[in-house]
Amino acid sequence: MARTPVDERRRALLAATLRVVASRGLAAASTRAIVAEADMSLASFHYAFDSRDELLEVLIGEVVALEERAIAPTDVEGKSLHDLVYEGLRGYLRHLQADPPHELAMLELTQYALREKTDLAREQYAAYTRLVTQALDIGAQATGAHWLVPLPTVARLLITLTDGLTLTWLVDRDDELAESVIAAAARAVVALAADTDATG
């Protein structure tokens, strides 16, 4: 019988863990529950990961990478800074709406990190800050704008807005209100920038 490559096992276990957390909560995501979901043995788990904690750390990093792909600007040609910020927020909202249990799982994983792995929680939000800062910088350069306040402050504001958007939408699933919130958020963020040519 062919052995499953370790990278493939790790990917399968990560996907299974996210499914378990999304459907039943982090408390239910025991090692046994994870391997049952992945249709693997406990021995296979320990061949791929040293511990459940290691798996959860890797999983948080994987989910951050997925969210980066959801908001990263892909087409900046001929667009205003407002267009780019709004499209990034709308992309995130679509990502949220497409798989609510996934985002609920991410909230639980963040709470886990805050309680058990403070450094991991810090790194998670540092990663968010890096990717949002990069997206905002790309947007400003592409549109001939510059930020009137430090870019990390703008990035933190945007992260704060998306955190609030996530939680409130998960509570009430009000798509129309969420759309109006991202429109207002885009206007608020862009108000912190100015056209470089106009200001010299």
UniProtKB/TrEMBL annotation:
Designated name of the protein: TetR/AcrR family transcriptional regulator
Domain spans labelled HTH tetR-type: 7-67
Organism: Microbacterium mitrae
Keyword Transcription applies: yes
Residue ranges: DNA binding: 30-49
PROSITE patterns (alphabetical): HTH_TETR_2
Molecular-function GO terms, alphabetical: DNA-binding transcription factor activity; transcription cis-regulatory region binding
Keywords (A to Z) from UniProt: DNA-binding, Transcription, Transcription regulation
InterPro entries linked to this entry: Homeodomain-like_sf, HTH-type_TetR-like_transc_reg, HTH_TetR, Tet_transcr_reg_TetR-rel_C_sf
Keyword Membrane part of the UniProt annotation: no
